[in-house]
Amino acid sequence: MISPLVVASLVALAVLGGGLAGTFLRDRLPGRHLDEDTKWMVRIGIGFLSTLAALLMSLIISAKMQSFDAVSRSVATTAAQIVGIDASLRELGPAGDAARAQLRALVSAEVDRLWQHAPSPASDARGYHPLERTLRAIAPAGAAEQAARARALQLTSELAHAGGLASSESGSTTTVPLLIVLLLWLVIISFGINLFAPASVTIVVVNLLVSLSIAAAIFLILELDQPYHGLIGVSDAPLRAALQQLAS
């Protein structure tokens, strides 16, 4: 997958290129193409596209933020379930040690797969089924242990049903055609604005700042789309804490 920083840099260059194209044509178009009626029509079109682009970008960022928050909550919920399973297994005493070791290995593999990109055979719900079989094989010594095993089985079943951490979207969900359309609009806007703007240092600086701001927004969108890595990522602290408890 292409780095978000590279994509953002290309977006900035594309927007700057649109502005340069507008500046280039301004000095070469006949006067009748730059009269007041033409300027008015271009302003209307640019204003319309600017509204559409702002609306689309805000919707994309909002959707990505919601998705990112959902992944973060899912990690916290999963960590809480793991701690709950561990607490129940501790009540089983030595009979639950094998299941605790199995759970620890499973969680460790999942954390490495998602945050370290390490290959893991337990990357979906199937990884929890052996743990469930281990729990069912335990013979409780009394009512308390039977209740503890039932709680552990229920939480494990919930994790398996959700697919564990794999239920949190770890892959990209960005719609590439949508971003391409947005970029096209932004290039057209930059072109139209510079078509009637006089060449000056101020205009150059404004174009540069606008291009960098747009690139930063695209970078944010792409970073939020990769919740388990990148500069902006969901913390693995809850699961690391759960692993420490499993190891104690």
From TrEMBL:
Classification via Pfam families: Bestrophin-like
Domain of life per record: Bacteria
TM helices/strands, residue ranges: 40-63, 176-197, 203-222
Swiss-Prot/TrEMBL keywords: Membrane, Transmembrane, Transmembrane helix
Name of this chain's protein: DUF4239 domain-containing protein
Species the sequence originates in: Candidatus Accumulibacter adjunctus
